[in-house]
Amino acid sequence: MHSTMILLGVLFGLLTQVYTLPVKNSTGVHEGKVRLKRKYSDEITDRDEMNAMDQILEINRRLRAPRGLSIRDGDIAASYIRSAITCPGNACLWPKSVDGFVYVPFMISPLYDDMDRITIETGMQDIAAGTCIKFVPRTHEVNFLDIQPRYGCWSFLGQTGGSQTLSLQTPGCMWSGVAAHEFMHALGFVHEQSRSDRDHYVSIVWKNIMPDHIHNFRKQVTNNLNSPYDYNSVMHYGRYAFSEDGGPTIIPRPDPYIPIGQRDGPSNLDLHKINVLYDCGVNE
User: Fold this and answer.
1) pLDDT digits 0-9 by tens, 226-269
2) 155, 75 Cβ separation under 8 angstroms
3) Does 215 appear as a known binding residue?
4) HSE-up of residue 233 (Cα within 13 Å, Cβ side)
5) Which of 20, 87, 170, 197 has the lowest tally of Cβ within 10 angstroms?
6) In order of start, what are the domains of the chain with their CATH numbers?
7) What is the four-CA torsion angle of 90, 93, 95, 96, rounded to 10 degrees?
8) Is 182 a catalytic residue?
């Protein structure tokens, strides 16, 4: 009986302490909240709807450019020595061999596992299968792509000379469509909505763009290769890219409901433009 009384006393004491604890002021917590900027992809409720550029921006949104580089348009690397992100006069194209193919040597970091390598090589194959571009393992070539699992997904534009880093972070960038997107940058292509004639095909909703990223929507002086605008290009921004508050930043015209971009790999027009740019001699 004595031990029972002691136990009851202990329980009573604990209950007294609980009821004397201060109640959390939920009103104060609510008032302390600040309006956070929504990520550009908040409107994409289903990840299966994300296109390649959506995924790239999702991975790169906290990216700090490596020392000596800047990242333009979301994923195009530029050195401080070569600041332009255009390729005037096709000066940055990979050379064409006498056999009619364009060989792009590459090295893949040993830090990737087998599945990563398959994903990366699928991105290469999706380009090579429909063009005269051939990605080949580097042997002694001076100019080559050095594919590394750095922070983020990014590439230089065209051939820059020497060892040229192309970053495909794992696992975030491990979509074959993302790999193909970065390889197309390395071949000399900018984003589709950066085309000089884009205003005929899309409207840029400037008021919805995060102020620090308005420069990513500048048009470039591009050679459009007499090719139609390609809403389905793997190089196209998503509808909500760099959105300030979740509203669309790019609206197709005249039909605003046309899907833009995709994640599967190069479109037929993407491959056509590679063939035209590199004079592959393929009639499509």
Assistant:
1) 999 999 999 999 999 999 999 999 999 999 999 999 999 999 99
2) yes
3) no
4) 25
5) 20
6) 47-277 (3.40.390.10)
7) -80
8) yes
